[in-house]
């Protein structure tokens, strides 16, 4: 069973300070939950569905609790309500059914998260930033003020420390918001992950092939982040999925499906040699230089990660390009990814810790490759605010109200892309 691997930030690195104190979040993000599955030949779904988060600036504190519990709202740098200014453009992109703007109070408008993020991005690009969270009103209530501080003391201590260190009291100053780099974080907030079988009692034939949470690879099960098509599972949902997958895997064994599976000594030896190769590459290549760390014979994990994230950021719709991409950029990015994969054969690791980093880089690269393929395949902008296809700026339900599915051939490395029907278990119309 492949389980949750934490959110995979494959677009741009954050400094250590920005991540400090986030006790509620995965302390690392390698993409291994996806990289391992893709390498095994499992079909993946919705890998283009990344998320861009609105966050309190620099401390990276989450904003959801403030919106929901404190009923705060946002304004631009000039103290103006700005979201409604962007409703006509958003409606043109996604249609009215996805943009519910009937509520009268700005903080109560239940527009989707991606569209709220899109409004922030648009307002900033229009030169009317910074964006502020209006906390001064809510914090006049002592109870709400206490809730506001405890929200970070319990989840993102670094945000409370940053405010204290920079003389920002949200009772008297409305703090700044910003948008994050994109995250690939299936189960928690997006639908990316492996194409897995659903439960027997609910699934249509296209979603079911014998055992709950089994991937398209016979006997390989997934849970949490690993499972695609199940956004908003969060921690309790991932825990539940783990139990479901474990029970299904046990049933698979009880049914005798695992009989005859033999792992040979040669398979073990070959995999061991593959895993430890970066240590050997470093040991040999290190002898070619007399000082420093740069060698013509190997690439180290950190420079490799920076190279990967620069490719993702600039070609696949990252923060420095305001989340914009198109078919030309995606094609160029995939070419650069292919060249990088050749270089990753020369990964070097000086110790066991760097060996772990080397394999995290390999898994992120494979995950990023899959994200490129899916983003190129879906020729529409389904989630404005998370990314934009500049060559297809509208949501296209006629052609793309579907789940995207990919399969990477383990021998050739070639991807086959397809569409799968998207059924609504709950009819919202």
Summarize the structure in words.
By secondary structure, this protein is of the alpha+beta class. Among the domains are: 54-179, Flavocytochrome C3, Chain A, domain 1 (Alpha-Beta Complex); 265-410, Methane Monooxygenase Hydroxylase, Chain G, domain 1 (Up-down Bundle), CATH 1.20.58. 39% of the residues lie in helices and 8% in strands. The chain contains 13 helices and ten strands. Helix 9 (265-285) packs across helix 12 (352-377), helix 10 (301-315) packs antiparallel against helix 11 (327-344) and helix 11 (327-344) packs antiparallel against helix 12 (352-377). It starts with 15 loop residues before the first helix and ends in an 8-residue tail after the last strand. The model is unreliable at 13-28 and 103-108 (pLDDT under 50).
Task: Provide the fold topology.
Layout: H1 16-19, H2 32-39, E1 44-45, E2 54-56, H3 64-69, E3 73-75, H4 87-94, H5 113-125, E4 131-134, H6 142-155, H7 157-165, E5 176-179, E6 193-194, H8 234-254, H9 265-285, H10 301-315, E7 324-325, H11 327-344, H12 352-377, E8 388-389, H13 397-400, E9 402-408, E10 415-421
Parallel strand pairs: 7-8
Antiparallel strand pairs: 1-6, 1-9, 2-5, 3-4, 4-5, 9-10
Helix pairs in contact: 2-12, 6-7, 9-12, 10-11, 10-12, 11-12
């Amino acid at each position: 069973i492949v389980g949750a691997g934490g959110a995979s930030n494959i677009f741009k690195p954050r400094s250590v300070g920005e991540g400090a104190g986030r006790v509620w979040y995965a302390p690392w993000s390698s993409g291994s939950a996806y990289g391992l599955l893709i390498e095994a030949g499992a079909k993946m779904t919705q890998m283009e569905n990344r998320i861009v988060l609105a966050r309190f600036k620099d401390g990276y504190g989450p904003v959801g609790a403030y919106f929901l519990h404190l009923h705060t709202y946002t304004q631009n740098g000039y103290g103006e309500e700005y979201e409604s200014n962007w409703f006509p453009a958003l409606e043109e992109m996604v249609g009215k059914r996805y943009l519910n703007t009937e509520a009268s109070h700005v903080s109560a408008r239940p527009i989707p998260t991606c569209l709220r993020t899109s409004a922030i991005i648009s307002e900033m690009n229009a030169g009317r930033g910074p964006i502020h969270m209006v906390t001064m009103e809510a914090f006049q209530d002592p109870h709400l003020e206490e809730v506001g501080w405890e929200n970070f003391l319990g989840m993102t201590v670094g945000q409370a420390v940053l405010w204290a260190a920079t003389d920002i009291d949200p009772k008297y100053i409305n703090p700044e918001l910003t948008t994050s780099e994109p995250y690939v974080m299936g189960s928690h907030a997006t639908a990316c992950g492996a194409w897995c079988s659903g439960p027997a009692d609910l699934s249509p034939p296209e979603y079911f092939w014998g055992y709950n949470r089994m991937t398209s690879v016979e006997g390989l099960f997934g849970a949490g982040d690993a499972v695609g098509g199940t956004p908003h599972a969060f921690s309790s949902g991932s825990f539940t999925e783990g139990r479901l997958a474990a029970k299904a895997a046990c049933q698979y064994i009880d049914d005798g499906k695992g009989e005859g599976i033999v792992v040979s000594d040669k398979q073990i030896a070959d995999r061991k040699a593959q895993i430890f190769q970066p240590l050997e590459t470093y040991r040999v290549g290190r002898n070619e230089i007399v000082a420093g760390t740069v060698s013509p014979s190997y690439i180290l994990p950190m420079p490799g990660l920076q190279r990967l994230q620069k490719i993702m950021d600039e070609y696949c719709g990252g923060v420095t390009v305001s989340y914009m991409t198109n078919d030309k950029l995606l094609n160029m990015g995939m070419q650069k990814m292919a060249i990088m994969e050749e270089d990753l054969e020369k990964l070097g690791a000086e110790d066991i810790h760097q060996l772990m980093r080397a394999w995290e880089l390999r898994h992120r690269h494979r995950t990023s490759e899959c994200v490129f393929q899916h983003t190129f395949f879906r020729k529409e902008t389904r989630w404005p605010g998370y990314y934009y296809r500049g060559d297809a700026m509208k949501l296209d339900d006629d052609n793309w109200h579907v789940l995207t599915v990919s399969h990477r051939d383990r021998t050739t490395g070639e991807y086959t892309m397809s569409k799968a029907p998207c059924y609504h278990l709950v009819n919202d119309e």
